[in-house]
Amino acid sequence: MSSATDYVSSLVPRRWTRTTNSYLGDLFENEYALLVVCLGPALALFFLVAILPMAWAFNLSLYEVSTLNPVWTWVGPGRFVDILTSSGFQNAFVRSLVFGFGSVAIQLVLGVGLALLVNKDFRGDVLARALALLPYMVPAVVIGMVGQFMLNAQYGIVNLALLRVGLLDQPVAFLGLPETAMATIMVVASWKFAVFVTLLTLARLQSIPDHFYEGATMCGANAWQKFRDVTLPRIQNVILIAALLRTLWMFNKFDIIYIMTRGGPGQTTTTIPLLAYEIAFNQYELGQAAAIAALMFVFLALWSVLYFRVARPEEEVRVA
Amino acid sequence: MTQIVGTYLSYRQAARIKSISYQIVVWATLLTLMVPIIWLVIGAFSGLEALLSGNISRIFSSITLEPIRQVFFASNFFTYYRNSLVVAAGVVVFTVVASTLAGYGLTRVQFRGKKWLARLILFGYMFPPLLLSLPMYQIWRELGLLNSLFGLVIAEASVPLPFGIWTMWLFFQTVPLDYEESVWMAGGSRWHSFKDVALPQAAPGMIAVGIFAFQSAWNNYTYPKVLISEDALRPLTTGITQYAVQNYVFWNQVMAIAFTIVIPAFLMVYFLQKYLLEGYKATA
């Protein structure tokens, strides 16, 4: 301890005295000024890109606003009733739920499995982990386009391979058929986003000390028992957090669906964000789009309450 | 298993067989998962006709640098690339600075309402970019930030910021206050203790936040899609779709652009995965 203190003291040259502080140094001296300097940039951004748009959306949602017409016409809260009872919104909401929960289920299985697989130390483990983490780093645009390319009915590798193996007797346009489009996007998106689960799980797995496993081995535990009694209790919380966050994010996924199908064929892959985009930029109804956004904020707030109740993330940083 | 095998093989040999079979399972799994990336790379170096024929041997015999060359000499490629790099750099700098400062402030200063502020920041995780971008489109238009890279940086910095603050908050908690206090006792100011003691200790966290911010900005599609309509200001993510819409049959060129987008991402995870895992370890 004292050596650390000595080391730190040695860092301080003579000229650093309280009388020769810089302007910035003065700001750090005062508790309130320090708070403003530290939290100012983050809170300013937070206000500009989150609080203000949300307030704006809630206000706008009560008006009829078209991008083509600058006049705002009052509509009132009845708009929310109209939207909630419209079949377009209800169907999109159900599709969002299907996409959200369905793809998260795939991601959890794939993500945790992959994390367990690359967690061990072996030759080439750095490369293996980099490859396992790569899909998350590849932009959704790229994945969407590669997906389109691979799933094409005429020259897509997936069709060619399935025909060759004999699982199909004629090519299928996976993204072009109402029956297969949603499931196909779910699989492609899960491929990318499972890696988020892998990242969280892998980080937690790496923090489990080896002697836990050594102890279990000495007590005669087999691989399954070690997983159940040593690994699982330590990763179940992180899996829960990942599941809650991922459901929230998948529910709001826009880019990958938009690139692969634009919400089609028909409306079969039009989830809530695609519906909002369509209404804002193709029908020019900004007020209605804002109302959908506002409804989603309410829904997300409810989901977040669940997240805070169940996962208690702020207890992780012992808030004093 | 090892016991039965052990009667025939030495323990060392059994362990070796086990390790090799484990590695085979790992690499076979990863190879299967990498099929889309492998196909992307093949596509980026193939002739278009061969690629569309779907004949594997024809594709392999058509391997060429032509798609890469065509993409490089396409008028907008370097513009898109430059825009992406400028935006990513802006997002990384802002996110790292803002979250480091915020993390330090939240750890070292006691004030009322801290718990609610923590929740507010975590709430930032929850904002769906598309739904925020719709009202943002209006606000940005009022502020004159539509079709500006600066406006795009501000919007995109909001995505990694909550994670960044969270990570730095956790990192500064691992730096004992004693270290900083000893600087003060030696006559140093708070600024010095922050700059020379706390900051170096939190450096791995800052790197993790930086990587996360980079990949978030590098991947972002939604904000440029909504906030940028001028072609010269598009980053790669929306630029590439522009390219594909114009020449949607040139799959080899599209894959070539995709290849140039994936390369930085791969290098980043390969060399910096340690820090990335560290950052997630802190937040997990």
UniProtKB/TrEMBL annotation, chain A:
The keyword Transmembrane helix applies. It is found in: Cell membrane. Its main location: membrane. SUPFAM superfamilies: MetI-like. Residues 93-307 form the ABC transmembrane type-1 domain. The chain crosses the membrane at residues 32-58, 97-118, 130-151, 181-203, 235-252, 289-308. It is a multi-pass membrane protein. Coiled coil: none annotated. The keyword Ion transport does not apply. InterPro entries: MetI-like, MetI-like_sf. PANTHER family: BLR7065 PROTEIN (PTHR43005), SPERMIDINE_PUTRESCINE TRANSPORT SYSTEM PERMEASE PROTEIN (PTHR43005:SF1). Belongs to the binding-protein-dependent transport system permease family. This is Sugar ABC transporter permease. It comes from Halogeometricum salsisoli.
UniProtKB/TrEMBL annotation, chain B:
The chain crosses the membrane at residues 20-42, 85-104, 116-137, 149-172, 250-272. Keywords: Cell membrane, Membrane, Transmembrane, Transmembrane helix, Transport. Residues 81-272 form the ABC transmembrane type-1 domain. Pfam families: BPD_transp_1. It comes from the Archaea. It is a multi-pass membrane protein. The keyword Membrane applies. InterPro entries: BP-dep_ABC_trans_perm, MetI-like, MetI-like_sf. Belongs to the binding-protein-dependent transport system permease family. This is Carbohydrate ABC transporter permease. It comes from Halogeometricum salsisoli.
